[in-house]
Amino acid sequence: xxxxxxxxxxxxxxxxxxxxxxxxxxxxxxxxxxxxxxxxxxxxxxxxxxxxxxxxxxxxxxxxxxxxxxxxxxxxxxxxxxxxxxxxxxxxxxxxxxxxxxxxxxxxxxxxxxxxxxxxxxxxxxxxxxxxxxxxxxxxxxxxxxxxxxxxxxxxxxxxxxxxxxxxxxxxxxxxxxxxxxxxxxxxxxxxxxxxxxxxxxxxxxxxxxxxxxxxxxxxxxxxxxxxxxxxxxxxxxxxxxxxxxxxxxxxxxxxxxxxxxxxxxxxxxxxxxxxxxxxxxxxxxxxxxxxxxxxxxxxxxxxxxxxxxxxxxxxxxxxxxxxxxxxxxxxxxxxxxxxxxxxxxxxxxxxxxxxxxxxxxxxxxxxxxxxxxxxxxxxxxxxxxxxxxxxxxxxxxxxxxxxxxxxxxxxxxxxxxxxxxxxxxxxxxxxxxxxxxxxxxxxxxxxxxxxxxxxxxxxxxxxxxxxxxxxxxxxxxxxxxxxxxxxxxxxxxxxxxxxxxxxxxxxxxxxxxxxxxxxxxxxxxxxxxxxxxxxxxxxxxxxxxxxxxxxxxxxxxxxxxxxxxxxxxxxxxxxxxxxxxxxxxxxxxxxxxxxxxxxxxxxxxxxxxxxxxxxxxxxxxxxxxxxxx
Amino acid sequence: xxxxxxxxxxxxxxxxxxxxxxxxxxxxxxxxxxxxxxxxxxxxxxxxxxxxxxxxxxxxxxxxxxxxxxxxxxxxx
Lengths: 630, 77
Description:
heterodimer, A: alpha+beta, Aldehyde Ferredoxin Oxidoreductase,  A, domain 1, Aldehyde Ferredoxin Oxidoreductase Protein, subunit A, domain 2, 3 domains, 6-stranded mixed β-sheet, 24 helices, 18 strands, B: 5-stranded mixed β-sheet, 1 helix, globular
């Protein structure tokens, strides 16, 4: 028994309504920890190679981490993973709110769902027990309607849920899973995997608080963060404004970080209209917290005017959403952005991939690759908020042009043809986070290599490491001692990027929130206090390396290759105006950086295949299969 | 001459009256660095600036009607 953990994993096979629990030994937990580590383990161990992601064979893993469910700030999160219908490789996405916290308190370190129910169902997990319940009457309902109906049926309040809306039911590859009405496990199409299993919702309630090996030390760490968070890292700004501050967005417009019109432009003149500061002064009515967290970074918006009505229960837009539905589509209407964000909560759509896909379609329309005939009469132009909202409805319900766009820009471009492929801005089929890789070129490297596609949360943001300050303080302990230019792709930069990637993979296994400013050392200390293990920073980095390598092997097994570690051609040309006018990524430098990354990871420098020695060094020799080409 | 200065995030405290946006009367030929030093900004604190919509160098000169935006280097969202 490991202290602080539930020491039980809940298994459900929906094909035959079988439910059982699994007990893993201490070595398992020390090697895979939780979150992204446990997701990678089950996908490699139990998923047959090359299955259709939307077939009953796919496995859907809900994995909190060791600290989840404990009263530690940043310890509410859980990782959800499966084989991705968007990329064909691994999907993993971390999400906040109360769901993971409650799942752990219900007595489980993870929930692994396989098979497919013969009719819509939901799971009711409470205090060590699980029931499979009929959800036929919930199918077709929004996430909010489902929440209300389930609480009424169960006769319970504050039931914590992971739910899909119509987009997940309709198997949209850009759909997500929504927890507690307004938090998204956004990336990789996880909502479609849930929909393919006829699983509408997982509802949980639990009361068992995990007990730390050293409870006094554990409480002291929580107290320290609750006392000091306003003076550490970026938490004061997150507390006041959440993400998407005017400093970040107006500043991003000046430096070139802000994405504009499907990455085809470099400047958005109306940026001040769509920032978190403007939101505070208009539609924001509250800031909300995840359990045990004082940072309270989550915006709540409410509005009712002649055009739009937005219910505060559906949350508010983060930076990624403000940019995706704002500058990235050339839209300056903050009310419409709030409404679009609400639709994504109700229908379970990933705001990033949805924003990327609609912006792609807008550029296709502007270039006459798509016409009104294709769009059902909608003039799908940059800047048109009404057109955006109409297309979101069509995508969620797979109607008209929405049926083509529901599977993301890569598949849409394949179906549209006529040069649309060049306008599809994604890596491995997964649209980009809202950060410009021509500015942050080390992030461009991670966009290329990250196993779950063009994800902005799993690598270094170069602009934090160009001068002395808070950013450098974080990476010095990982061996990067000197600031480097944002567009640098030297071996020193690749090393910095790689180490940040590994540290974040450890964080995603713990699963700690990236917005609560814990250092790596503090995360190690909390794991020591929780479990009693003699855990070290070295072991944490090893854990990150193990998870990154397992995800790499999974992708190779599923047929992805080094050729999939490739940015779209557009980033090798400059933007027409703005700060990056005349600036592009040098393709040769990026090519070399990718090879260097493989080398530093102990992977084959050409194919990116981890060597057998590396796998055995990490204690995962078992993941090597004949399906992975050497 | 008159210029407008916007300072964001924690840097706002250096702007006139601690305001986000302030109009300032300054001498001709003043550089971005000169102006920020005159506002008492700690030049060791990391900062970026945009002058009239484009990324500014500390040695860039302001002119009548200039809009100077000063902000901390941002990492993620």
